[in-house]
Fold this sequence. Notes:
Elements: H1 18-34, E1 48-49, E2 62-65, E3 71-73, E4 76-78, H2 83-88, H3 91-96, E5 98-103, H4 109-121, E6 126-129, E7 132-133
Parallel strand pairs: 1-7, 2-5, 5-6
Antiparallel strand pairs: 2-3, 3-4
Amino acid sequence: MSMSSSNSGTMLTEINVTPLVDVMLVLLIIFMVTAPMLQTGVDVNLPEAKAQTIPDDEGKLILTITKDKRVFLGKLQIAWDEVETMLKNNAKLKADRELYLHADKDLPYGEVVKVMAAVKQAGVDKLGMVTDPLE
């Protein structure tokens, strides 16, 4: 039996990866451009404290209280008396049972405690208080 060296009737078995690389590079550029825009939360004047930094706050549920007593869940403003109800109905909170609290340092302590009580009533097991690191 002799082997023929002609290419007639044979299939190309190599995969062309150039289109795959092109698509991956485009996706990488899209994610690099949009990632900084995904930061959630509202700017508040946080108190400074000597504490460990949060390793990754990406995807974490953040409750923010400004010094004029406005409450935000992420970037959504909610009414002061609806904090507990909104948290109880939040699907991410039901799954994670974890919340981070941004409270302005000029906000009276009693107001922060009221929100913490509402958060606890909503079923949060882990409550993180976010501060700015000391310089």
